[in-house]
Specification:
The protein is an alpha/beta fold and 368 residues long. 34% of the residues lie in helices and 15% in strands.
Length: 368
């Protein structure tokens, strides 16, 4: 039985024990939108908006990692949107992070607040003290993107459970290998699989996972009716990326901790944040609920020009948005309108050799 082994081992051999002689070991891409369907429709294979064999195989693999049923979407925001549209209606109240990924708040402001949904924004670090009374749903993101604040998932989950609030945890920064929101009491876990799960910066994908079938059924229905369908080609690339997830996460996390440690002693760097640093304000909570601290380091230089110069000089940084890929990347988040200082840098560590990345980072602090 494979159940005694880790989720990654089970994922890698999810198909092998079911194969018949002569069947391909690699996951096939089933590109058809239609299926042979005489008589009455049965199962999910009659039109690919309802189901696709490649996509369903990858959903099952994500389910092994999450230890829950998982549904794939064509982006992380599509996954978050599906949860909102499936569970919020006029008159509902929703609590959302004030400092996490801005698009989630923008969606609520533009598409839900105007239709009578009350939106309350709370800083991530203050979520354990938030009032969830009367809230239909709460969205947390921990560590938050880009500021890397952390909240106690179990404590927030307990308050939400007492209030009858659905707790949704955006686990994109950590991934299920480093943090287990569903184990800690969250009702729904969402992720932008575009990031570390796929890992190669070549597809958009996202998923919703839950151990509460009644919550997931509404999300499934919205996905089918709205047509929020990932292609089998992208699902295959996500599958291929997940096969190396554990190895990539280990290197990226090691890089992030090494870079943060090296930067912590430099007087040119301020507001350094990384939950893996013992001196970080979020470390105590992060250590309690995380087994790895993610690939992102955030810090400030004295100005926007200094920050852009650092990125430009750094030989091992791509000047790009997003994170979780094999290449280290960085950007000034002020350009997206985040509430951060002008010189704020979000540095997303990739899988370069640790020593190379640390050396290059320190040298890039030196002005031209």
């Amino acid at each position: 039985m494979t159940e005694k082994y880790s989720p990654i081992s089970r994922l890698l051999h999810h198909r092998t024990k079911r194969l018949q002689k002569g069947e391909p070991l690699a996951l096939p891409i089933v590109a058809s939108t239609i299926y042979h369907l005489p008589g009455e429709p049965q199962g999910s294979h009659f039109y690919s908006r309802y189901g696709n064999p490649t996509v369903e195989e990858v959903e099952a693999e994500i389910g092994l990692i999450e230890d829950a049923e998982a549904i794939l979407f064509p982006s992380g925001m599509a996954a978050i949107a599906a949860v909102f549209y499936a569970h919020l209606k006029p008159g509902d109240r929703v609590v959302v992070h004030a400092d996490g990924y801005y698009n989630a708040r923008a969606l609520l402001a533009e598409q839900f607040a105007s239709k009578g949904v009350e939106v309350v924004a709370v800083p991530t670090a203050a979520m354990t003290g938030a009032d969830f009374t009367g809230a239909k749903l709460a969205l947390i993101e921990t560590p938050s993107n880009p500021g890397l604040e952390v909240c106690d998932i179990a404590a927030v989950a307990a308050k939400c459970r007492a209030a009858g609030t659905i707790l949704v945890a955006d686990n994109t920064t950590a991934t299920p290998l480093c943090q287990r929101p569903l184990d800690l009491g969250a009702d729904i876990s969402v992720m932008a699989d575009t990031k570390a799960m796929a890992g190669h910066s070549d597809i958009l994908a996202g998923h919703v996972a839950s151990r509460r079938p009644e919550l997931l059924e509404a999300v499934k229905s919205w996905k089918r009716l709205a047509g929020a369908i990932i292609s089998p080609f992208d699902a295959y690339l996500l599958h291929r990326g997940m096969e190396t997830l554990e190895l990539r996460i280990a290197r990226a996390n090691a890089n992030a901790l090494a870079v943060a440690t090296a930067l912590s002693g430099d007087p040119r760097v301020t507001n350094l944040r990384y939950p893996g640093l013992i001196g970080d304000s979020a470390h105590a909570v992060a250590r309690h609920q995380m087994t790895g601290y993610g690939p992102i380091v955030s810090f400030c230089l004295e100005s926007r020009d200094a920050a852009e110069g650092f990125i430009r000089r750094h030989p091992l940084l791509a000047a790009a948005t997003s994170f979780g890929g094999v290449h280290s990347a960085a950007e000034c988040r002020i350009r997206w309108g985040d509430a951060v200082p002008e010189g704020f840098i979000r540095m997303a560590c990739g899988i370069e050799p640790v020593g190379d990345l640390v050396t290059a980072t320190l040298s890039a602090l030196d002005p031209d």
